[in-house]
Amino acid sequence: MRSTKIIFSTFALFPALVIINACSQNDLELVNPNGLSPDTFFKTEAQVQSAVNAAYANLQTRGLYSRHMFFSQDNMSHENDGNPQLEADKRQYLDFSFDSSHGPIADYWESCYRGINKANFVIGNEEAINAIDEGLVSTATKQKFIGEAKFLRALYNFLLVTRFGDMPLITEIPTTTVGVAKSTADEVYALIISDLQAASSSLLDKSEEDNGRATKGAAIALLGKVYLYRGEHALALAEFNKISGYSLEPNYFDNFTEETEHGVESIFEIEYDDALGASAKWDSSVTGAGPNEATFRGQEYGFNDWFNVFPSNDLLDEFEDGDARYAGSFYSVGDTFAGGVVTAEMLTAGDQRRAGWKKYQNYYKDANEDQESGINFKYLRYADVLLMKAECENEVGSQDNAIDLINEVRERATLDDLPYGLSKAEVFEAIVHERKVELAGEQVRFNDILRWNLTDTELAGTNFQTGKNELWPIPDREISSNENITAADQNPGY
Question: What is the per-residue pLDDT for 41?
C-alpha cells in the first residue's frame, strides 16, 4: 500500500451545476478548482480524481462520521448510556423518541444523498472520462475512478436503506427541482449489489492503492456484508472467501489510533486529519461545503472532556474475565493516559461511571481532546469480516469452520479457544457475543440486533417499538421539498 493519506474536501452540488473543491496530500495539479465548469470538466486525471474525492467527502460530514453517526448507532444499540448533559436530540436515540422533525436524522439523509449525487456526477460522465486521451489517463485508471464512484454510491445507498427502507433511488444527476419518488428496498439493494460487483472488478488491491481510497478488498467485503444483511449466506460466504492480504493487528488498540491508520487489519476507513481544518463542524452537512476534516467523537465521548456518553453496564458486563479488548476499548479508574491517572472523579457525571471510552480517543497522547480528532474511523476491518464469515459458515452448516474463525479473533483477545462440536445454536450465541465485544462502539451492533431479530431481548426496556423503530422516519425536510413524497409515504408509526 502507498503511504500517502488522501483527504477529501467537500463541494456543493446543485441540479445543473457542479462546483469542485477537492484537495489531497498527493499535491494534485489543480489550479483554481472552483473555476472549473461542466464544459471544461473531465479533461485530465486531476479533474477526474477531484470529482471522485468530492464523493468521498460526504462521509466526513456532521450528518455522518464527523458527529452524528456514532451517537445514533451506539445509542440505539445501547452500547452507550447518557450523562445528564447529553443533548436532547442524542438522548432521543436512547429511548427511541425521535420523530420526522429530528434534525440529525435529516442531516444523515442529506449527507448520504449529497454523496450519491457526487458519485453520480462521476458515473454519469463515464463517456467523457473514457474519452480522455489514453496518453493522459490509462483505461485502467479511468475504470478505477469509476469503480470508486460506484463503491461510494453503494455505500451511501446501504447507509440509507438500512435506516429508512424504501427510499428514493437516484442514479443520475437531477436536471430539475422535481423530487424522486420512493423505490422499494429490494430495488435499492439490487443497485448496491450491481455497483459493488462492478467496483470489485475495477478497483486496485490495497497494496497498489493510496491510503484512504476504496480498494478491491473493500468492495468485496462490503458486497459480502450486503449479502449477509439480506440473509443470503452462501453468496456472502463466496465473497468473503475471495478476501486475502489482510490480518489482525497484534495489538487490538492499534486499530483506533492516528499513528496506526491503514494497518494490516484495515479494509476501509473514513479519513480525518484535524490539521486540515475543522471550521465547518456544525453545519457542513447542510451546506455541503468544507472544510470538515476532523471528527468530534472525542470531545463528546471523552471522560476528561464533555463526557456526554459512557459505555453501558450491559456492554461492560458482556466482556469475559481476561479479555484484552476491555482495556483496549475503555478507561477505568487507575488506568494511565496522557493526562496522568484516571480517577473516580473523572468518571463521575452525576453518578459514578464504571468506565469511559478509549476507542478513537486522543487520550493516549493528549490530556484533553480539544474538541476535534484526526483519528480515522474503520468502516470495515478484518476482524469484522472474520466474524461475518463465521456467521455464514454456521448458517450453511460448517460449525467447525465457524469456530476456527471465531477462535482467530479470540486468540488476539488472549481468550481460550471455543471447543469443536458445538451446535449451530451454540455457535450463533458465540458469534453474537464476539461481535458485541469485538466491535463495541463501531456502529455495527444496532444493525446486528435487527437482522438477528433480537430486539425483544437486547433492547428490552428501551422503548423500542417493533414495527416502527427498525426504521427511521423520512425527514420532514424531504417531505416538504419533494413533491413525489408525501406524508402518506412516511415509514410506519411516524
Answer: 86
pLDDT surpasses 80 at 33: no
The residues near 66 (Cβ < 8 Å, ≥ 6 apart) are 60, 281, 284, 285, 292, 294, 295, 296
Rg (CA), the chain: 22
- Identity of the amino acid at 363: Y
> Measuring CA to CA, how many Å separate 124 from each of 117, 133, 148, 194, 312?
10, 19, 13, 16, 45
217: its cell numbers: 478488498
The fold of 33-284+379-489 is: 1.25.40
Instruction: Report whether 248 contacts 324 (CB < 8 A).
Output: no
What pLDDT, on a 0 to 100 scale, did the predictor assign at position 292? 55
Q: What is the pTM of this model?
A: 0.92
**φ/ψ bin of 409: left (φ > 0), alpha (ψ from -120 to 50), beta (otherwise):** alpha
Rounded CA gap, 373 and 298, in Å? 6
Torsion of CA 142, 147, 150, 152, to 10 degrees: -110
Domain locations in the chain as residue ranges: 33-284+379-489
